[in-house]
């Protein structure tokens, strides 16, 4: 019986590969079910962070690139009193989309892998929220009264 396995090894590997394809296609289909506006690559620009607890503002220039197709969020932030920027890459695990088509109301929640233990940013996720036509970007894991909010000055859809 042991002589059968080497003879059919390539065939078994082929069937294992074919069995994996529907699983992969199923994951892709789940992403395609997300609304088009939530799957667009976006660049967000902010010049400050506002603490929700006391409305204290800190001038912190930031640029955030959200790329759902590559499952990444890249933050490029200049910390206060520093000349160099800190760039951090987050890997998106899940996207929950409740945003309207013209990105003027609703929210997009990005759950990320916690691979940044030393980061000042949250380790579990972000929310992009639109209210009254204004966008803000903030942590989905911080308590509501302790959340640093980045009001978005400018956003653009990237190709």
Description:
- The chain has 159 residues and is of the alpha+beta class.
- The chain folds into two domains: 1-33; 36-158, Porin (Beta Barrel), CATH 2.40.160.
- The chain is 18% helix and 43% strand.
- It contains one helix and eleven strands, in the order αβββββββββββ.
- It has one helix at 4-32, and strands spanning 41-46, 49-51, 57-58, 62-67, 72-78, 85-99, 106-112, 125-131, 134-139, 148-151, 154-158.
- It has an eleven-stranded antiparallel sheet with strand order 3-2-10-9-8-7-6-5-4-1-11, with no helix packed on it.
- The longest helix has 29 residues, at 4-32.
- 17% of the residues are buried.
- Residues 13-32 have low confidence and may be disordered.
Terminal-residue CA separation: 56 Å
CATH fold group of the largest domain: Porin
Overall geometry:
globular
By DSSP (H or I, 4+ residues per run), the number of helices equals 1
Strand order of the largest sheet: 3-2-10-9-8-7-6-5-4-1-11
User: Helix amount, in percent?
Assistant: 10-25%
Report the structural category: alpha+beta
User: What is the CA-atom radius of gyration, in angstroms?
Assistant: 21 Å
Number of individual domains: 2
Low-confidence stretches: 13-32
Largest sheet: 11 strands, antiparallel
CATH class of the largest domain: Mainly Beta
Q: Summarize model confidence as the mean pLDDT.
A: 77
């Amino acid at each position: 019986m042991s002589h059968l396995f080497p003879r059919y090894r390539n065939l078994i590997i082929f069937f294992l590969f074919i069995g994996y394809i529907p699983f992969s296609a199923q994951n892709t289909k789940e992403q395609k079910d997300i609304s088009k506006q939530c799957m667009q690559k976006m660049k967000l620009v902010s010049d400050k962070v506002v603490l929700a607890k006391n409305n204290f503002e800190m001038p912190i220039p930031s640029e955030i690139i959200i790329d759902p197709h590559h499952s990444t969020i890249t933050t490029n932030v200049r910390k206060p009193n520093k000349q160099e920027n800190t760039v951090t890459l987050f890997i998106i695990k899940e996207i929950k989309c409740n945003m309207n088509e013209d990105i003027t109301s609703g929210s997009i929640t990005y759950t990320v892998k916690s691979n940044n233990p030393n980061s000042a940013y949250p380790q579990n996720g972000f929310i992009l929220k639109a209210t009254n036509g204004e966008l803000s970007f903030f942590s989905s894991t911080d308590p509501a009264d302790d959340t640093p909010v980045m009001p978005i000055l400018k956003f653009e859809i990237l190709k």
